[in-house]
Amino acid sequence: MHWSRYLSSLPELTLTGVIDVVIVAFLLYQSLLVVRGTRAGHILIGILMMVFLYAVAVWAGLEALRSLLSFIVPYLGLAIIVLFQSEIRRTLARIGRKRWFSAGFRAPESIHEIVLAVEQLAAQKTGALIVLERDIGLRTFVESGVRMEALISRDLLLSIFRPGLPLHDGAAIVQKDRIAAAACFLPLTTSPTLSRTLGTRHRAAIGITEETDCLSIVVSEETGRISVAAFGEIASGIPLGELVHRIHLHFGMQRHSDMESGGALARETAELVEESRSVERVNQP
């Protein structure tokens, strides 16, 4: 009898109500995905526990506990903003992210120059971090480094990351067909799920992709392995052909309708790399 009165008091389920519930469930699910696997997840559990204890205190008539929590619960909104500021910023950036690709890499020559530089840096085991801007601007990080505004070239990238020079440490940021800045400081990822063997350069490459939609290319100075980071994930030990494919895919240059042309670009880049190797072998004494 009690349950029948409770069910009769519920509002009638309409199409608008179903859509409302689905949207709220989707937003809650996306919010949980943002904090999953991070330190913010444990903080969120603690906040929910305090809210639950407050509800129990009100329901059970525990006045002492309710009075104590009544001084804390009103400030939970401010605490959430302060504690989850990085997660909130990352979520808003994802919401505002465009789904169409920018015009940053229209000319394949810039990709060739980057791949040629990465190939030589890997062969020499020279550490490097190159960030390719997509839709979300990287002006804040560009201003943290040394402005260059120079055309992309293999020789310039090799000079930037030459060990011992002032621009070696930090990241080189590429905007469209130009190197905007070098020696830039990037945020480090704090994800606890990553391997502890990853160094600062790799963590910076992941950290910048967690906040923006850029693509990061990393060369390890210990092993010479090439890694690519995008959307908070990193793939290590990839060959040059896979690097070209991931750049094309990330910037929308390789769709289903032009898969053949994308493969041609990859083959052309591979031919340029092989030609560069041949020239270097001839020039060697």
Describe this structure in words.
The protein has 285 residues and is of the alpha+beta class. It is built from twelve helices and seven strands. It has a seven-stranded mixed sheet with strand order 2-4-3-1-5-6-7, sandwiched between helices. β3 (171-175) and β4 form a beta hairpin. It is elongated and about 75 Å long. It starts with a helix and ends with a helix.
Characteristic key phrases:
285 residues; elongated; 13% strand; YojJ-like (1; disordered C terminus; seven-stranded mixed beta sheet
CATH class of the largest domain: Alpha Beta
CATH topology call of the largest domain: YojJ-like (1
Sheet having the most strands: 7 strands, mixed
Helix content: 40-55%
Q: What series of H and E elements makes up the topology?
A: HHHHHHHEHEHEEHEEEHH
Strand segment count: 7
The gist of it:
By secondary structure, the protein is of the alpha+beta class. 54% of the residues lie in helices and 13% in strands.
Please outline the helices and strands.
Layout: H1 2-9, H2 15-35, H3 39-60, H4 63-70, H5 76-83, H6 85-95, H7 108-124, E1 128-132, H8 139-142, E2 146-151, H9 154-160, E3 171-175, E4 178-184, H10 200-211, E5 215-219, E6 226-230, E7 233-236, H11 240-250, H12 259-283
Parallel strand pairs: 1-3
Antiparallel strand pairs: 1-5, 2-4, 3-4, 5-6, 6-7
